[in-house]
Amino acid sequence: MIAIKAENIGKRFGDVTALEDINLQVAEGELFGLIGPDGAGKTTLFRILTTLILPDSGKAEVNGLDAVRDYKKIRRQIGYMPGRFSLYQDLTVEENLRFFATIFGVTVDQNYDLIKDIYQQIEPFRKRKAGQLSGGMKQKLALSCALVHEPKVLFLDEPTTGVDAVSRREFWDMLQKLQEKGIPILVSTPYMDEADRCNRVALIQQGRILTVDPPGVITKGFDKALYAIRAHSNTYQLIQDLRKFEGIDQVYPFGEFLHATAKTPVDKQVLNQFLADRGHEQIIIEETGADIEDCFIGMMVK
């Protein structure tokens, strides 16, 4: 069964095209990632799928229901965690949770088993006001509130933005446990390294889907030679010199290295000498495998 379906979705805000011809499907029980930088259109698509705004064109369905015609039914069946923390900051942890349960006509005790693993991590702070929680705790509370009514589909818009690396990892561990319970999850993130935690991902840029596939399939499809390069020299100058080397077609920062792509393999010794002749020292050139970020950058150029 298809839990989420978007067909030819388009949306404009004045002269700005936020989404153009978006097509994707999320299967029942799937953890699906929408990966792209800020401004790519992720939040706009989420707001359409969660019935908060209308598309200009195309059609969206959630759990078999039309996002325009059946918006009231959809709102009762989904859990939605927006990118910005939107709970009541002057209410305590337990007051927020009880409030959202009441809105959906349930009690916390009814569905406690669903949120137990998450809520137990913040339960010692249940009397603390939500506004006084750390970023990681706020995210756990928001996820608990999105789950307390036992939704059939879960939407999480950039849930790990602004939290530390440990909290990010813990959050994804929690999502995978929820997936094991059969809940389909659509999650967006600007962090490329989080793609590997998903069953499938859609890479989105400037309102367009670049590709939809499992992360491993995307990286295996990278069809260029890729090199990780570092030198004891001015990084900007190193980038400029690499771009002058015959055969290199892309150069971009990648952690403590530069990544350089070539349509065909280059001679590393020749490249090393080329850089040395231009004053670079302690040069390291290594062949490396592509990850999602390399694939994303390559697709943007195409």
Q: Any overview of this molecule?
A:
This protein has 302 residues and is of the alpha/beta class. 32% of the residues lie in helices and 30% in strands. It contains ten helices and 14 strands. The strands form three sheets. A six-stranded mixed beta sheet has the order 6-7-8-3-9-10, with helices on both faces. Strands 2-1-4-5 form a four-stranded antiparallel beta sheet, covered by helices on one side. It has a four-stranded antiparallel beta sheet with strand order 12-13-11-14, covered by helices on one side. Strand 12 and strand 13 form a beta hairpin. Helix 3 packs parallel to helix 5 and helix 4 packs antiparallel against helix 5. It is elongated and about 70 Å long. The chain starts with a strand and ends with a helix.
Structural class: alpha/beta
Q: What is the mean pLDDT?
A: 94
The main pleated sheet reads as:
6 strands, mixed
By DSSP, the count of extended strands is 14
What is the radius of gyration?
23 Å
| Order of helix and strand elements from N to C terminus | EEEHEEHEHHHEHEEEHEHEEHEH
What portion of residues belong to β-strands?
25-35%
What sort of overall outline do the alpha carbons produce when their principal axes are compared?
elongated
Concise synopsis of the structure shown:
The chain has 10 helices and 14 strands.
How would you describe this structure in keywords?
alpha/beta; 6-stranded mixed β-sheet; single chain; 302 residues; 4-stranded antiparallel β-sheet
Topology:
Blueprint: E1 2-13, E2 16-27, E3 31-35, H1 42-49, E4 57-62, E5 65-66, H2 71-77, E6 78-81, H3 93-103, H4 112-119, H5 135-147, E7 153-157, H6 165-180, E8 185-189, E9 200-205, E10 208-213, H7 215-220, E11 225-232, H8 235-244, E12 248-254, E13 257-262, H9 268-276, E14 281-287, H10 292-301
Parallel strand pairs: 3-8, 3-9, 6-7, 7-8
Antiparallel strand pairs: 1-2, 1-4, 4-5, 9-10, 11-13, 11-14, 12-13
Helix pairs in contact: 3-5, 4-5
